Amino acid sequence: MKKYVIESCLILLYLEFVMRIHGLKRLHEIVRQHSVISMQSATGPSSELLCRAADYACVLYFKQVLCLQRSCATTLLLRRYGWGAQMVIGAQIIPFESHAWVEVGGIVVNDKPYMLDIYQVLERC
Description:
Oligomer: single chain
Helix content: 40-55%
Order of helices and strands: HHHHEEEHE
InterPro entries: McjB-like, McjB_C
Strand order of the largest sheet: 3-2-1-4
Radius of gyration: 14 Å
Number of domains: 1
Largest sheet: 4 strands, antiparallel
Pfam families: Transglut_core3
Number of helices: 5
Domain Microcin J25-processing protein McjB C-terminal: 12-122
Protein name: Microcin J25-processing protein McjB C-terminal domain-containing protein
């Protein structure tokens, strides 16, 4: 578990650097560039373990982590270990609010399962 938490912290640091230099748009490009591997070929740690490690890394991180950063890091970590993760960005109109989460096989893995009921999906990467 410690290995995955450290790996998640390093991904968060990398994303922080990218966000400061290139902006939020580059985070989307990074996630899109990493290909999605089908779930049948997933080996190694479970998606739950990797999501928990990413959450621990967010708690240990030196500043507050936004949902977009957390979802990018979780998606990259899951894809690295063979999980077909998708980062999803959604919004609601009243009150206007946006949010990002991660799905594996259409199931929300790093947030509450009813995210699709609250937010309209704007993008999947």
